[in-house]
Design goal:
The structure is a single chain. 62% of the residues lie in helices and 11% in strands. By secondary structure, it is mainly alpha-helical. It has one domain: Orthogonal Bundle (Arc Repressor Mutant, subunit A). Helix 1 packs across helix 5 (109-130). The longest helix has 24 residues, at 11-34. It is elongated and about 55 Å long.
Length: 157
């Protein structure tokens, strides 16, 4: 019996081979998306800084402590990371209108623009690859990946 790469005859081969195939495919896609995308217009940011920007996009604004909790770092570490993002003018610290002792972090227009440019590059890079799937297959793929991410403890940051 010949070996079919997509449907192995031995079900135990799936259990040992599937995680490796999944990770290999995942990292190939990840590398393709990341290649040069976090450096735009002479700006270079780290993956963690990118995650901070994405978190702020979702929440609109939050405190340093809330961001630190979500990213699982100390507030002092978060403050240092925000200093760099603030120097780039992607985030700003503002006083809360509800409590003048509280400083909130939020995206600037420039920060939102940077996120849009990176996301646009990612869409451009993913579109040809996703085009090999039908719209229904694309939706199924996204749903399945979301389930795997949730089951693996992915925080969505």
């Amino acid at each position: 019996m010949s070996y079919d790469h997509h449907h192995p005859a031995d079900p135990s081969a799936v259990s040992s081979e599937l995680p490796e195939r999944f990770l290999s495919a995942f990292w190939r896609i990840h590398r393709r998306l990341r290649a040069g995308t976090l450096s735009q217009d002479g700006h270079q940011i780290t993956r963690v800084q990118w995650l901070i920007l994405r978190q702020l996009k979702r929440t609109e604004q939050c405190t340093i402590g809330q961001l630190a909790d979500r990213m699982e770092v100390r507030p002092s570490t978060m403050s240092q990371m925000l200093d760099r993002l603030e120097r780039e003018r992607w985030v700003e610290r503002v006083t809360s209108s509800e409590d003048s002792r509280v400083r909130l972090i939020r995206l600037t227009d420039s920060g939102r623009g940077f996120i849009r440019s990176v996301e646009g590059l990612w869409r451009d890079r993913l579109s040809p690859a996703l085009a090999v799937l039908t719209p229904q297959e694309q939706a199924t793929l996204v749903d399945l990946l979301a389930r795997v991410a949730q089951a693996s403890g992915g925080s969505g940051v």
